[in-house]
Amino acid sequence: MTIHQMPADDTKPAYNYAYLDEQTKRMIRRALLKAVAVPGYQVPFGSREMPLARGWGTGGIQITAAIIGPADTLKVIDQGADDTTNAVSIRRFFERTADARTCEATDEATIIQTRHRIPEAPLKSGQVMVYQVPTPEPLRRLEPREAETRKMHAWAEYGLMQVKLYEDIARYGEITKTYDYPVMVNDRYVMAPSPIPKFDNPKMHMSPALQLFGAGREKRIYALPPYTSVKSLDFEDHPFRIQSWTQPCGLCGAGDSYLDEVVIDDQGGRMFVCSDSHYCETRRVEGHRGTMLGDAAASGLVEETNP
Amino acid sequence: MSAGTMIAPGFSHPVFQSQAAFRALLAALSEPGTLQNVASEITPPEGLTTATATALLTLADYETPVWLPEALRNGPAGAWLRFHCGASLVESPAEAAFAVIDGTVYEPKLSAFNLGTDQFPDRSTTVIVQVTALKGGSALALSGPGILGSRNITPQSLRPGFIDELRENGALYPLGVDVLLAHGEGLIGLPRSTQIEEVR
């Protein structure tokens, strides 16, 4: 770098608001409008280089950058948690580039960018969910050629997917897919719901929130408008079921949330805790106590709140 | 330079005005039938309403051919769009990514625009229909994605047979154009996924 290119000490990097240039935002916005008009159809878009590696949420970030404005409050979660690396760095990215207000409370957020979970607290009308999607094509494992999967979607030729689910049942007695469980949208397109656990699939059906999906590496955008029919694929004699656990959350005692299994020692000890960190905290503040909250607080893993 | 050839200014704050307008457009097409306000403090060129002009400023650029009625294309509206958006103005409706039509004029029919292809239904035209009012006409009941149950709209001055055209367009789903009804600063979205019934 020659000396005249050195920035002065007080200059900040001159990015456009929300990092992307206006031309890119317009292109993404046009793709989003077509995506909501044809729910579940994957709209190709010109995914840009972002200042993080593809596969780290670049699709979701580009959608958030194209829709965010000064009136928005952004929540970012990674596997349900607000405090993991991916969530913290994406939140900070928008604080820096778009002066975004950020929050952890699900009901305060207008935009919720997520990797692999839908919050436990019910979503409201007016909220926008932005999903980070690694593999937007639900048929890709069954048919590697894009030219073929495109025809299969065009002609609603989804027999292959039903055969795959049937083979699971024939071999294992049940459908073994537990995340990224394929859904039928508006009785027309089979869609990959991104790798959310199948526990979250029913939350997409007739959700009052707008749901947008961005796959940066695969260059696809798709969407679910509010109140859209989303059915998990199944068979009459093998109906779709969500996961269940034999015990409630060890910290907050919730029996209705998605639980992560945490190994706590080398003696085979384990505990189950809510994957949605904000939901768990809210319940603890409300006075709900799980059986292992005392132990976890004693070893400094969580703060014990006394209501 | 006479006032007739002056090109009126576009957005004074392009980043935030286009963001606000886009969110209104996104809401219009994701919740069909809701009346969205796209106030943006611009003075639209003659022949375009504020909502139409704002939507085109927000979405159109050199990648998106725009179709305008011939009088508008050769008038101040055409010059305004060329200058601010850099959009090419096409003569054939089937080539357009965006189009503006008058709700009362008979031609072109919705089916004359690009309906997309079965493998790329997203390549269809978005048609902005300028009407004399978005309220006070005979009621239309909408249903489909984005609508819980059904929702009524009462736009005025749609040409006779336009509802049938919308219904034929919806029957092509997932192909078909997406329609935005515009008047003043108001917009109502009617994407191809919406089913339309006349309320009697």
The helix-and-strand class of chain A reads alpha/beta
| Number of contiguous helices of chain B | 5
Largest interface: A-B, 44 and 37 residues
Proportion of residues in helical segments of chain B: 25-40%
The first-to-last residue Cα distance of chain B is 54 Å
Domain tally of chain A: 2
CATH superfamily of chain B: Bacterial phosphonate metabolism protein PhnH
CATH-defined architecture of chain B: 3-Layer(aba) Sandwich
Oligomer: heterodimer
Number of strands of chain A: 12
Alpha carbon gyration radius of chain B: 16 Å
Count of distinct strands of chain B: 9
**What's the tally of helices of chain A?**
8
Low-confidence stretches of chain B are none
Beta content of chain A comes to: 15-25%
Task: Explain the overall architecture.
The complex is a heterodimer of chains A (307) and B (200). With 307 residues, chain A is α/β, with parallel strands linked by helices. Helix content of chain A is 27%, strand content 16%. Chain A is built from eight helices and twelve strands. In chain A, the strands form three sheets. Chain A has a seven-stranded mixed beta sheet. A three-stranded antiparallel beta sheet of chain A has the order 7-6-10. In chain A, strands 11-12 form a two-stranded antiparallel ribbon. The longest helix of chain A is centred in the first third of the chain and has 16 residues, at 22-37. The relative contact order of chain A is 0.14. Chain B has helices at 14-30, 50-59, 70-73, 76-85, 162-171; strands at residues 35-37, 66-67, 98-102, 126-130, 140-143, 151-153, 178-183, 186-190, 195-198. The longest helix of chain B has 17 residues, at 14-30. Chain B contains five helices and nine strands, in the order αβαβααββββαβββ. Classes of the chains: A alpha/beta (307), B alpha/beta (200). The interface between A and B is large, with 44 and 37 residues.
